[in-house]
Design a protein that fits this description.
The complex is a heterodimer of chains A (about 220) and B (about 900).
Chain A lengths: L2 H23 L1 H4 L9 H23 L10 H28 L8 H23 L3 H7 L8 H20 L16 H24 L10
Helix pairs in contact in A: 1-3, 1-8, 3-5, 4-5, 5-7, 5-8, 7-8
Chain B lengths: L4 H33 L2 E3 L35 E7 L4 H4 L21 H9 L4 E7 L6 H10 L6 E3 L13 H7 L4 E6 L1 H5 L6 E5 L9 H16 L4 E6 L1 H9 L4 H20 L4 E6 L15 H4 E7 L15 E3 L3 H8 L25 H29 L5 H23 L5 H26 L4 H24 L11 H20 L5 H24 L14 H12 L3 H5 L1 H22 L25 H20 L21 H15 L12 H17 L27 H11 L1 H8 L3 H8 L1 H12 L19 H5 L1 H32 L6 H49 L1
Parallel strand pairs in B: 1-4, 2-7, 2-8, 3-10, 5-6, 5-7
Antiparallel strand pairs in B: 3-9, 8-9
Helix pairs in contact in B: 1-15, 1-17, 1-29, 1-30, 7-9, 8-9, 12-13, 12-14, 13-14, 15-17, 15-29, 16-17, 18-29, 20-21, 20-23, 21-22, 23-25, 23-29, 25-30, 29-30
Classes of the chains: A mainly alpha (about 220), B mainly alpha (about 900).
């Protein structure tokens, strides 16, 4: 592992963070009355799109695992379609999980689903970019001693921190502070965003800190 | 095989005794805390009536026959009572007119009630401002009770009806209604709960939203003047909440408070202009507030409230003294009752404000003093009658003091009678009688406060410390229990505790000091805990490093911490029905994720990197991994479905109670129960139960409590459970219905506690599914130690029986872990209740939560004890049966 790799990782992550910041700032120039809290759903869509786009672009530019053996057009198209299906499935999966965790079943379906979409953006999209539509690889990455590169390591950290952020975001909901951000699902989406950003910041630092101990088995 | 049944039995007994001792430590802590925190008092349902004077002796002026007069002729036919919530005394205090040199005081709450000051200056004979002292707890509900009954409400007024907040004691409102007066109310809807159906006309406004400063006040203002001008009222009560809410939201040092107080000033001004000659105006604050705007406790700022009296006709013979008088808040009750010509409420222990009974027009000092004395005498007779009735029904008053007071009363009463017979008595004798009567009334009040209205901080701290120590002990010993050579230690605390208690009791008996059993129990607990810890420290501290003694449950510790912290927020206590399944679901997902992380969830062929070998003795197969995933998802589903059965807490307005609050709930519980038992299949370790499983189990118990439609508040108790099987009622016995209601309420605690040993046994039971396959695959690895004739059959829980020492240790550990998790909860409740005793919600949320949690703990610990004893009994029986079998074979 080289320091240049870590540097590249850091830059890509900074770009991701930048895209989130842009998704907050830019729309207010074009849309009237845009604010994260009041037009939350719009922001969710914009943020989701911009993060996905940045991830895709970065993947195409950086190519962390350049080991595609076949490169025919049809293979690429099927792969892309598969990715889309996986993404949708993960959205539905998260939606079900939220409902199981206590989200309202019938009311606020759109809000819950968009929340699932943004969480999928933070977790599934990087997985798809890095590992492709390959469940086995995903399972491998998310188990002990399963990572094989710093990219996978950072993926692990950002995903887990997104989940933790989402989870922590649920805690203010019952409090009686009566703030606008306590409404479902705003606190959770904000928690997810903060968790994702925190993961993006932490993972390069953590990897840099532990670069001596980290040895990846390549097989 | 087990060759030493006697030692095994000894071990079992010592384990059970140890568990009982730990439970006793908790009980002692809970009892000590409760005795300091929950003040109790018996509520009497007797009523005063017009026809029945409080004592012998002619009533003054023979007023009994007159209309509108009961014990005394009424001086006012109408009353306007303006209750400004949290009107602290200094809010109303007149500000000295500062000289030109001094800078004006500019605190936002000072000097805003100008109309009071003006009236006091212009009409000194018509108005008077007092500093009234409220008794703790200074919460609105308790204060309202006090202001109408004249007693000292405590949190638990024993004998009251828990199903509603309605006042059962005799009170002013009831007396007014009985006398046929029209009572019109407007304001805080707490009154609706306290006096259901008592008002001839009422305008209630919601009081719950503390952030809303204006709804209640504006609502009152809309109706106040029209009602007043309409004239269809005898008593008009307006309860303003704005000042209190402003205190809670901003604190008194905020410009908003100045606005609110100015508004109140205008209200008073408006009322004064509209008053007629026969009307008395009373402006009173029910309590004060601290510098942060809270109330509930007993600090000086909280208990000082303003009391302002005004009448268009002259009330007082003298101009007010320079220094403002301090009167107890409940003095208002007998005073108002006698002024309005009503009987004094039966349970009143307030003292009439004698000054108001001196006839103002009559300048003769003698008759004025006689009128005061007769009012005081009536009051004293009534209080004496109450004391007599109360001490016959309850024993919580000091006998010696009671006797003294009775003597004082009879002397004063005799003096008074003598004075009445010789009307030409000296002025000095009258004054003596008045002083004696006042002395008696004050003595009674002091005695009642002593036993009803004082938190005992020392006891609360002691109880909490004892509970914390017991939790610590559980944590420590559950870690030690697996070390060998620990068991002989177990019996020492019992011996120490017993000896200590006997010595203490003997010492107390000889010295004649009277000590209540709660303190004795706590002393015994401490006396046995200290030697145990010391001995354990001496035995272990030298051998091993200290860090090895403390467990590191990792993320589960975080869960327990979150649960601990959640008890300190009233919102989380109210929302616990939703927070518990959230935590439980998270814990389950965490378990699944952790299993996956460890590589135990899915067969390694799915993964490209080979996994580490599993320890062969865990008794689990890979097959059960996918099984566990299914179980986890099913469990999540069940928890979500169970959430449909919850019942709404009264604090959440936008919540719909589930229509299926019915036995249906129990069905999903069997399922949950099975699935929950299935979870530990996958957790490793044959002889210890992991913290995750124990925490999940305890959470599940709480979750079940809510899903069965219970809430930790008294009005939510299912009282109808008392009549299951007894449709006719129970006659006079109270323990049977209490038992039935208790069983209904704490069924989940009992079930889960008795079922707790399943956590240990279940993994062994489930071994059978995968065992055969595994043995075929893995060959001789695991059964190298297993004897040949048992190779075909999985040994399941027999494995436990083979090592009785480990089995007992594991049971002890399991019991201690469960007690620890429960103990943490009760400790958190106790700490929350004591730290937040000034909190707005303490009597509504924290105190009931503490009581329910304490009851739940007691039920759980008893259930746990029974469950473990049952398992041990079965184990012993099976062992002896095996021995007989072997003996029979050998013959």
């Amino acid at each position: 592992m080289k320091d240049t790799d870590i540097k590249r990782l850091l830059y890509t992550h900074l770009l991701c963070i930048f895209s989130i910041i842009l998704s907050i700032c830019i729309p207010s120039f074009f849309l009237e009355n845009f604010s994260i809290l009041e037009t939350h759903l719009t922001w969710l869509c914009i943020c989701s799109v911009s993060v996905t786009a940045v991830n895709l672009v970065l993947y195409l530019i950086v190519k962390p695992n350049a080991s595609s053996k076949r490169s025919s057009i049809s293979y690429k198209v099927t792969r892309f379609l598969k990715c889309c299906i996986y993404f949708l499935m993960s959205c539905f999966f998260f939606h079900v999980i939220f409902v199981l965790y206590g989200a309202p079943l019938i009311e606020l379906v759109l809000e819950t689903f968009l929340f699932a979409v943004i969480l999928s953006t933070f977790t599934t999209v990087p997985c798809l970019c890095l590992l492709g539509p390959n469940i086995k690889a995903w399972l491998r990455v998310f188990s002990r001693n399963g990572v094989t590169s710093i990219w996978e390591n950072s993926l692990q950290i950002t995903t887990i921190s997104s989940f933790i952020g989402t989870w922590l975001g649920a805690f203010p909901i019952p409090l009686d502070w009566e703030r606008p951000w306590q409404v479902w699902p705003i606190s959770c989406t904000l928690g997810a965003t903060f968790g994702y950003v925190a993961g993006l910041v932490i993972s390069p630092l953590w990897i840099y800190w532990n670069r001596k101990q980290l040895t990846y088995k390549n097989n | 095989m087990n060759s030493l049944p006697a030692t095994s039995r000894m071990q079992k007994i010592s384990v059970l005794l140890f568990l009982a001792w730990v439970s006793f430590l908790f009980y002692a802590g809970i009892a000590l805390f409760t005795s300091g925190f929950l003040l109790t008092r018996l509520e009497l349902t007797n009523h005063s009536s017009c026809e029945e004077p409080p004592g012998p002796g002619s009533l003054p002026w023979g007023s009994q026959g007159k209309p509108g007069a009961c014990w005394m002729a009424s001086r006012f036919s109408r009353l306007v009572l303006v209750l400004v919530d949290a009107l602290r005394f200094d809010f109303a205090q007149p500000q000295p007119s500062h000289g030109p040199g001094e800078p004006p005081v500019s605190l936002p709450f000072l000097g805003k009630l100008n109309s009071l000051q003006r009236i006091l200056e212009i009409q000194p004979h018509h108005a008077r401002l007092y500093q009234s002292k409220a008794d703790p707890p200074t919460t609105t509900m308790q204060r309202l009770k006090a202001l109408t009954t004249g007693s000292l409400p405590t949190f638990i007024d024993a004998g009251s009806n828990f199903a509603s907040y309605a006042i059962v004691e005799d009170n002013l409102i009831k007396q007014l209604t009985n006398a046929g007066r029209h009572v019109v109310f407007m304001g805080d809807d707490t009154w609706k709960d306290l006096f259901p159906g008592a008002f001839s006309q009422a305008f209630f406004f919601p009081s719950f939203n503390v952030r809303d400063l204006h709804t209640v006040d504006n609502g009152i203002l809309e109706h106040l003047y029209p009602t007043m001008d309409g004239g269809e009222w005898d008593v008009l009560i307006a309860h303003f909440l704005g000042v209190d809410h402003c205190g809670h939201k901003y604190g008194p040092h905020h410009p908003e408070m100045a606005k609110k107080l100015s508004q109140m000033d205008q209200v008073i001004q408006g009322l004064v202009e509209r008053l007629e000659n026969d009307t008395l105006l009373v402006v009173i604050g029910d309590h004060g507030m601290t510098i942060t705007g809270d109330h509930g406790g007993d600090s000086d700022l909280e208990i000082s409230a303003a009391l302002f009296l005004y009448s268009p006709k002259a009330l007082f013979p003298r101009v007010p003294p320079k220094e403002l008088e301090i009167v107890p808040q409940i003095s208002l009750v007998p005073t108002l009752a006698l002024l309005l010509g009503l009987p004094i409420p039966f349970g009143n222990i307030g003292e009439v404000m004698a000054e108001l009974f001196a006839e103002a027009e009559d300048s003769q000092p003698h008759s004025s003093a006689l009128a005061q004395a007769s009012a005081l005498h009536l009051n004293a007779q009534q209080v004496s009658r109450f004391l007599h009735t109360y001490s016959a029904a309850a024993q919580d008053l000091q006998v010696k003091e009671l006797h003294q007071l009775q003597n004082l009363f009879s002397k004063a009463s005799a003096d008074y009678q003598r004075l009445l017979q010789s009307p030409q008595g000296a002025e000095a004798a009258l004054q003596t009688v008045i002083t004696e009567l006042q002395q008696f009334l004050r003595g009674v009040r002091a005695m009642c406060i002593e036993s009803w209205a004082r938190f005992s901080l020392g006891r609360m701290a002691g109880g909490a410390a004892l509970m914390a120590a017991a939790c610590f002990l559980c944590l420590l010993v559950s870690q030690w229990a697996t070390y060998p050579g620990f068991h002989p230690l177990l019996l020492t605390p019992m011996a120490c505790g017993l000896a200590g208690t006997i010595v203490c009791a003997g010492l107390l008996a000889t010295t004649g000091l009277k000590l209540d059993p709660v303190v004795l129990g706590a002393m015994a607990a401490v006396g046995s805990l200290l030697p145990f810890l010391w001995k354990a420290w001496a035995g272990w501290g030298s051998k091993r490093p200290l860090a090895a003694l403390f467990p590191t449950p990792g993320p589960v510790l975080l869960f327990l911490l979150i649960r601990f912290a959640a008890f300190f927020s009233d919102s989380f206590v109210v929302a616990e029905a939703r927070a518990t399944p959230f935590l439980l679901g998270s814990l389950i997902l965490l378990l699944v994720a952790q299993l996956h992380w460890e590589g135990k969830l899915l067969p390694p062929k799915l993964l490209t990197i080979p996994r580490l070998c599993f320890s062969a003795s865990t008794g689990q197969s890979r097959h059960s991994g996918t099984h566990a995933l299914g179980l986890g998802v099913g469990l999540l589903l069940c928890i979500r479905l169970a959430g449909l059965f919850h019942r709404c807490p009264e604090e959440t307005p936008a919540c719909h109670s589930s229509p299926w609050l019915s036995p249906l709930a129990s069905m999903s519980f069997l399922l949950l129960h099975l699935l929950a038992a299935g979870i530990p299949i996958t957790t490793p370790g044959p002889f210890t139960v992991p913290w995750q499983a124990v925490s999940a189990w305890a959470l599940m118990a709480t979750q079940t409590f809510y899903s069965m439609g219970h809430q930790p508040v008294f009005p939510a108790i299912h009282w109808h459970a008392a009549f299951v099987g007894f449709p006719e009622g129970h006659g006079s016995s109270t323990w049977l219905p209490a038992l039935l209601v208790g069983a209904n309420t704490f069924a989940s605690h009992l079930l889960f506690a008795v079922g707790c040993p399943l956590l240990l046994l279940w993994p062994f039971l489930c071994e059978s599914q995968g065992a055969r396959k595994r043995w075929q695959h893995l060959g001789n690895e695991a059964e190298a130690r297993v004897r040949p004739e048992e190779e075909e059959e999985p040994r399941m829980e027999m494995r436990l029986r083979d090592a009785p020492h480990h089995f007992n240790a594991a049971l002890l550990q399991l019991g201690l872990k469960y007690l620890f998790v429960l103990g943490i909860q009760i400790l958190a409740c106790a700490l929350a209740a004591s730290i937040l005793r000034r909190h707005l919600m303490v009597w509504k949320v924290f105190a009931p939560k503490f009581i329910f949690e304490a009851m739940g703990f007691i039920v759980s610990s008893v259930g746990l004890f029974l469950g473990i004893a049952l398992v041990m009994r079965v184990d012993g029986a099976v062992s002896s049966w095996f021995r007989q079998l072997i003996l029979a074979q050998q013959r």
